[in-house]
């Protein structure tokens, strides 16, 4: 794509209008942003773009890299790699669309606000519900990851349900930090811990004569395929899992609202998604190449008991921070909805803190209940990907682009092609929503039927090896 065409698509018109508004007794400068700047109020817009990119990395990286290898077993190495590249490209593009749209409409704090601009109140509420569903589910996956780590480190010394309660408490405490600026430092630690843990596993699997979970004597089916032959339900679930690994871009928007300069959003997205795509592709191909069907889910358990303990010991901080970020963004959405246009939104009042802690507690408890009900990592992510992220991260961004480029429908041939491609993007999102949700429901039912999932709130360790 030429520089002229790229600029034509990405650059947003700017508005320099600023006016003074009153929040109770507080005079604040209004540049259209949800969080104001002014004397006597708490400044939320303090996050530098470099910190923003690390927060984005932590939102995206931890869960996806733990599930893609097992999805590759279902699809095969080549289709799996194509899925990684294809979905990551679409997720990156849609993230940039959302940033462009938000700079055009600065009052949008969340994807629900964007839905309100293009479709009115009904679309706003539907988008808000899907946003909450998505991040409550992925927060649950974070709790499953932490409880799995605690199980591994303790040799299953407690009932898994107790570990889930401990995981939920850890996630809730981290999530309660009020500003993204204050949580940014721990995202550095979290990202490094997960990256190192995954790297240790990648190196570890290459040193084994046989996969750790495979029979150690006699012939066995390794299960590595360039092309897999899955059923529709299995293939759409695997594709949805890979898609979901980079689809949490709607969580970027609340972070963008707390950036010092939202115009630097695209830099943070580009760095984040470039690093994530390279890591996903390289790590998952190596783990699947050396483990075949014997890859664990989460994949940190793929290199044997000792490496598993080392990896989980290092990565548990990152898993906890991931769950905390998901709880934080879902709670922040509800918090802003409750206190928007009120002085309590940016004032250190009892109402402010009561609302914030109440939102954190509610999101943590709901995520814990889901984690206990569907305690298998890839199924949780696939369910989130198909049911909520597909419409939020694909269909709605396509609609946002069309809303701000409505004249392209009657433009030159290139503009008409771009318009048509974004219509196709909407259709892809809708197909993945219906097909993916069907597929993962079938997979979950089969898992309960064959005993892979023992029962909700069970003491069994439901981390699997396939």
From TrEMBL:
Ranges of residues in domain Amino acid transporter transmembrane: 47-441
Coiled coil: none
Superkingdom, natural source: Eukaryota
Any GO molecular function: L-amino acid transmembrane transporter activity
GO-annotated cellular components: membrane
Name of the protein in question: Amino acid transporter transmembrane domain-containing protein
Family label: Belongs to the amino acid/polyamine transporter 2 family.
Membrane topology: Multi-pass membrane protein
Transmembrane segments: 129-150, 162-178, 185-205, 232-256, 268-290, 310-329, 350-370, 376-396, 417-441
Origin organism lineage: Eukaryota, Fungi, Dikarya, Ascomycota, Pezizomycotina
Pfam families the record matches: Aa_trans (PF01490)
Classification via PANTHER family: AMINO ACID PERMEASE, PUTATIVE-RELATED, AMINO ACID TRANSPORTER
Keywords assigned by UniProt, alphabetized: Membrane, Transmembrane, Transmembrane helix
Subcellular localization(s) per the UniProt record: Membrane
């Amino acid at each position: 794509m030429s520089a002229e065409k790229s600029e034509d698509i990405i650059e947003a018109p700017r508005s320099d209008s600023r006016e003074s508004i009153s929040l109770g007794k507080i005079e604040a400068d209004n540049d259209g942003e949800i969080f104001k700047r002014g004397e006597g109020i708490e400044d939320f817009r303090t996050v530098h773009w470099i910190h923003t990119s690390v927060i984005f990395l932590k939102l995206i990286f931890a869960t996806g890299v733990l599930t893609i290898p097992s999805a590759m077993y279902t699809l095969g190495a080549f289709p799996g790699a194509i899925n990684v590249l294809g979905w990551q490209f679409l997720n990156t593009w849609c993230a940039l669309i959302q940033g462009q749209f938000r700079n055009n409409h600065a009052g949008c704090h969340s994807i629900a606000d964007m839905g309100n601009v293009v479709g009115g109140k009904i679309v706003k509420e539907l988008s808000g519900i899907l946003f909450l569903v998505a991040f409550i589910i992925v927060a649950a996956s974070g709790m499953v990851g932490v409880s799995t780590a605690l199980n591994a480190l303790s040799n299953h010394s407690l009932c898994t349900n107790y570990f889930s309660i401990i995981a939920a408490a850890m996630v809730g405490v981290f999530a309660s930090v009020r500003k993204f600026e204050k949580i940014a430092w721990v995202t550095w630690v979290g990202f490094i811990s997960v990256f190192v843990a995954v790297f240790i596993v990648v190196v570890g699997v290459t040193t084994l004569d046989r996969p750790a979970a495979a029979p150690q004597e006699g012939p066995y089916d390794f299960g590595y395929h360039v092309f897999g032959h899955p059923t529709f339900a299995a293939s759409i679930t695997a594709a949805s899992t890979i898609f979901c690994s980079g689809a949490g871009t709607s969580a970027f928007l609340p972070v963008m609202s707390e950036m010092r300069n939202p115009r630097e959003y695209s830099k943070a997205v580009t760095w984040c998604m470039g690093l994530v795509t390279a890591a996903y592709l390289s790590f998952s191909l190596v783990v699947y190449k050396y483990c075949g069907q014997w890859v664990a889910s989460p994949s940190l358990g793929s290199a044997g008991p000792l490496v598993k303990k080392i990896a989980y010991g290092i990565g548990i901080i990152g898993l906890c921070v991931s769950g905390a970020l998901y709880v934080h963004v879902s709670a922040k959405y509800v918090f802003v909805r409750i206190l928007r246009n009120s002085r309590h939104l940016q004032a250190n009042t009892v109402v402010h803190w009561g609302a914030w802690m109440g939102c954190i507690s509610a999101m943590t408890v709901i995520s814990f209940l889901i984690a206990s009900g569907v305690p298998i990592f890839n199924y949780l992510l696939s369910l989130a990907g198909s049911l909520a992220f597909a419409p939020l991260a694909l269909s709605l961004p396509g609609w946002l682009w069309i809303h701000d480029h409505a004249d392209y429908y009657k433009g030159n041939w290139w503009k008409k092609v771009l318009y048509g491609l974004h219509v196709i993007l909407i259709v892809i999102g809708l197909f993945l929503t219906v097909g993916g949700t069907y597929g993962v429901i079938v997979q979950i039912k089969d898992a309960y039927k064959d005993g892979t999932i023992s029962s909700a709130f069970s003491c069994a360790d439901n981390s699997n090896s396939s």
